[in-house]
Amino acid sequence: MKRSFLFFLLPVLLLIAVEVLSVYFIMPFPGSQLGLAMDGTEQASLARVELAYWLHNNIIWLRAVGLLLLAYPAFWLLTRPHRAWHRYIGVGLLVIYGVVLYMVNREMMADQMFKQPTTKRVVPMSQNKIPLQKLVLGFESVGQATAYPLQLIGYHHQVRDTVGNQPVMITYCTVCRTGRVFSPMVQGQADEFRLVGMDHFNAMFEDKRTGTWWRQATGEAVVGPLRGQTMLELAARQMTLGEWAAEHPNTRVLQADPAFADEFKSMRTYDRGLSKGKLTRRDSGSWQPKSWVIGVERAGFTQAYDWNQLQTNRILSDVVGGEPLLLAMAPDSVSFGAWSRRVGVQTLNFQFANKRLTDLETHSVWTWRGHCIAGPLTGRRLIPIPKAYQEFWHSWRSFHPDTKQYDES
Predict the structure, then answer these.
(1) Which residues are listed as membrane-spanning (predicted)?
(2) Which of 38, 136, 298, 337 lies deepest, with the highest CB count within 10 Å?
(3) In this model, does residue 45 exceed pLDDT 80?
């Protein structure tokens, strides 16, 4: 093989490799995300994200250097006498590089695959078109409530809004089944974010001002100038739109953007765990990577609860971080709530029998929302525990490696 052909071959392969690797480490390609659990691979995984971040920030000059190194050998190969197969391979590699360049930057970038709404409509219930049985992420601030259907935010991954005069960043990762609401304030200023890829199968966002990359599941900055900082998370709840509207009759509801009708259609069964995608479908068994769990965080302690067990028992009682906890399932078997079992100085113990939730201490009757509707404690309400999430087991254990699994026995 002629030396001039090698001088052509090396820079064009380098250019192709740089483009591919810039997305490989932060997208769900085979082998790109190290494991489903935090099993000692955290440092290796972080190194891959750091490499992707370096490539992202240096891609312009890397392309420039590669093209400069390629220019003369390409000119020599195409204009001087060479073996025909050298030219065929050379032209083919140039075409491949052009295709890779286009695909990486126009088709495979996360923010090109999952776009923000072009027309955002948030309407009152009187104008709502979203079915009441659809799951939503509900957020309330200063008396104003808004529901964000999982089918919609699962595609967008991020929707910006203002609720009760408070700017909010509504986020969702379908591969982790994690819904989080954050304040978009970074260093005291409202910032813009774009979906940049994923780490441990969890969405990552890049802020516009500093270029820092943030994990969606925890709000933690993993690489960039603000590494180690955490976005302020705001309490949100997941339930059906019908249950949310019953609790918040004046709620607003995010509507589907017609520009993404096909994308929303492909997501129509996701919220009930019936997606056919390998990364987003539910494992109906317990404690498998794609099994549903409820993860609870309190005072630095974390606990995971089997969704199937909650559906069977209707309630689960525990203590997390010193706080007595009640998990309660709604009659629709898809909405849930997490509450403190403390009422004043008393800690209540609950039972669910004959379709009634009662406490053993006063025999008062309660709703799954933590409202006492009959008995000595009528009118009392349990205090909600804000950090209680439904998500895939692989996600919860990845970002809470010290979590414990609830064992009723």
Answers:
(1) 59-78, 85-104
(2) 136
(3) no
Q: What integer is the mean pLDDT of 79-90?
A: 65
Q: Which fold has domain 292-405?
A: Rieske Iron-sulfur Protein (2.102.10)
Q: Are 214 and 220 in contact (CB under 8 A)?
A: yes
Q: Position of tokens 């996701």?
A: 270
Q: DSSP strand E in 125-267: where? A: 135-141, 144-149, 158-163, 166-173, 178-182, 185-186, 189-190, 193-199, 202-207, 213-215, 221-223, 233-234, 237-240, 252-254
Q: Is 173 helix (H, G, I), strand (E, B) or coil?
A: strand
Q: Where are the domains of the chain?
A: 3-108, 122-271, 292-405
How many whole angstroms separate alpha carbon 167 and alpha carbon 235?
Answer: 14
Question: Under DSSP, is residue 279 helix (H, G, I), strand (E, B) or coil?
Answer: coil
Distance from first CA to last CA of the chain, Å, rounded?
Answer: 71
Enter the tokens of residue 219: 């709000």
How many residues does this entry show for the chain?
Answer: 409
Question: In sequence order, what are the beta bridge partners of 318?
Answer: 325
